[in-house]
Design a protein that fits this description.
The protein is an alpha+beta fold. The chain contains ten helices and eight strands. The strands form two sheets. A six-stranded antiparallel β-sheet has the order 5-4-3-8-7-6, sandwiched between helices. Strands 1-2 form a two-stranded antiparallel ribbon. α5 runs antiparallel to α10.
Length: about 260
């Protein structure tokens, strides 16, 4: 009996952690404070359970609650976790920023710098397009390997065994255009390996297209540089024409890293 009770308690504790992390993730994805009613609707939690979890996250500093609207937003503790990761890449960002600014100014589109993490591609710097319609903010977000342009060119650097291990899990659709068949994804990776760049056409976000290349520190890729924009403006033809300029910018950054 004690063993069963301990197992049930452990399962209950794990479920509580999962629910709290889900709430934290949903709040982080919003650009404005989120009311508890919306969080209950998104998670299926009852108001009492949601309020208890949110209160715990608030008291720990991971969430903050508005005094007037009572909506929740990320707290300092959550933000500091993200900043801690990004600070690791501060020298890389500093060296890449001049080339990123030139690309942004020339193309009038958003420019992204990402690195590979275990769970996907982490955006560590993003310069937004000066135009009114632009891609969403990916800063501190993790994008899947298989349906992002920087993820595809990252996978192109790996061995077939490493690729098989990454593609072994379920590949979830992000949009109607997301390719989830592992063999089709492998074909995309082979194409990226031949071309020297990865592309995405509405697979991560249906309204966005992007192209990415690797930045090397010697022989090893250490980061991935991307240009991305709204699909109606950055069409397939326009995007592919940017490949040589993007590769040139990545080469300039790579040279700085090896000096």
């Amino acid at each position: 009996m004690p063993v069963k009770n301990a197992a049930a308690k452990e399962a209950s504790g794990a479920q509580t952690v999962e629910r709290a992390l889900l709430l934290l993730k949903l709040v982080s994805e919003e650009g404005q404070p989120v009311p508890i009613a919306k969080l209950c609707e998104q998670t299926g939690l009852n108001r009492t359970t949601a309020y208890r979890l949110l209160s715990t996250l608030e008291s720990s500093g991971f969430l903050e609650r508005e005094a007037v609207g009572k909506g929740y937003r990320l707290g300092y503790a959550a933000a500091s976790l993200c900043l801690g990761i990004v600070r690791q890449y501060a020298p890389l960002i500093r060296l890449a920023r001049p080339e990123m600014e030139r690309l942004r100014d020339e193309t009038q589109e958003s420019v992204i710098l990402a690195v590979a993490r275990i769970s996907g591609m982490l955006t560590i710097d993003q310069l937004d397009s000066p135009q009114a319609v632009r891609i969403k903010n990916y800063m501190d977000n993790i994008s899947p390997f298989f349906c992002s342009s920087n993820g595809k060119i990252f996978l192109a650097q790996l061995t077939d065994d490493e690729i098989d291990a990454i593609l072994a899990g379920p590949l979830e659709s992000r949009t109607p255009r997301t390719v989830t068949d592992p063999d089709a994804v492998r074909a995309e990776i082979r194409k990226a390996r031949r071309n020297g760049y990865g592309t995405v056409f509405g697979e991560l976000d249906e309204s966005e297209n992007g192209i990415s290349v690797a930045v090397h520190d010697g022989l090893a890729p250490v980061a991935f540089l991307s240009i991305a924009g709204p699909a109606f403006r950055l069409t397939r033809d326009k995007l592919l024409k940017l490949a040589p300029r993007l590769q040139q910018a990545a080469a300039e950054i790579s040279q700085k890293l090896t000096q």
